[in-house]
Amino acid sequence: xxxxxxxxxxxxxxxxxxxxxxxxxxxxxxxxxxxxxxxxxxxxxxxxxxxxxxxxxxxxxxxxxxxxxxxxxxxxxxxxxxxxxxxxxxxxxxxxxxxxxxxxxxxxxxxxxxxxxxxxxxxxxxxxxxxxxxxxxxxxxxxxxxxxxxxxxxxxxxxxxxxxxxxxxxxxxxxxxxxxxxxxxxxxxxxxxxxxxxxxxxxxxxxxxxxxxxxxxxxxxxxxxxxxxxxxxxxxxxxxxxxxxxxxxxxxxxxxxxxxxxxxxxxxxxxxxxxxxxxxxxxxxxxxxxxxxxxxxxxxxxxxxxxxxxxxxxxxxxxxxxxxxxxxxxxxxxxxxx
Length: 338
Known about the structure:
Elements: E1 4-6, H1 10-20, E2 24-30, E3 36-43, E4 48-54, H2 62-78, E5 87-91, E6 96-100, E7 105-106, H3 112-125, H4 147-164, H5 172-187, H6 190-194, E8 204-206, E9 215-217, E10 223-225, E11 232-234, H7 236-245, H8 253-263, H9 273-292, H10 298-306, H11 313-334
Antiparallel strand pairs: 1-2, 2-3, 3-4, 4-6, 5-6, 7-9, 8-11, 9-10
Helix pairs in contact: 3-8, 4-5, 4-9, 5-9, 7-8, 7-9, 9-11
């Protein structure tokens, strides 16, 4: 975790003492995500941890995100996963949790070997069946365990974009129309073809926001996977297709295909996997195109500015519009070639 600034953080030091039982001798703030703040803390005994403070958002409760991540990581560590940070302690009232500090940097270069590491992580998740592990793991955030969820989530996102976007940009309305047309075509006979819901034995554990954008690369070349605030049970199609499509990971066609062919044999527990991904991959392309357009929403833009965005908004929106168009075009074709 690099790119840090040392500042006076007395309240973070107090939080650290609650979780570690020791005085905090140093607190360093680290650039985190929009839904959290991360600090590198050093205790009086010289131990180093990552303290994560969960910031409230409008879509999911803060406590829910803490418990998803903390319980999910603890479960994975118990199952022998060594490429996630150990979860040590949490305080739900303070909205904080303590994890291993991981030395590393963000993944800049996507190589076949690193894609294989993504595939290996997903493959190691696949043996866990929901009926065998009910425990304290709940559905992933915005899980798609019913076929209609793939449609409903898209319609909701499109309605929000149409109703709340507040800066007219040439081509925006036309793209929304294209997305609706694509959605209508992809929705045809979907439930009748795939059935109403996915049976629990086919549910998989999913970080639900997985890829290079949430990983650190060590000096030795190993990856550690972070940020599992949306962890839970989901459709294996979502786990595989979202990893292939996530704009933060941005796998090229060859690497996306490499990932797909590496994980597909591990999905044999779902005999409908290949047929369903052929039907659902395009719907997820529509979903990701909508997410790329989120900067058109004033509330989202305000959060970007608060997080340090300094670029002129029109420039950003024009760029996001081009990205969304390219994403839809590329991924509605990609699955046909696999």
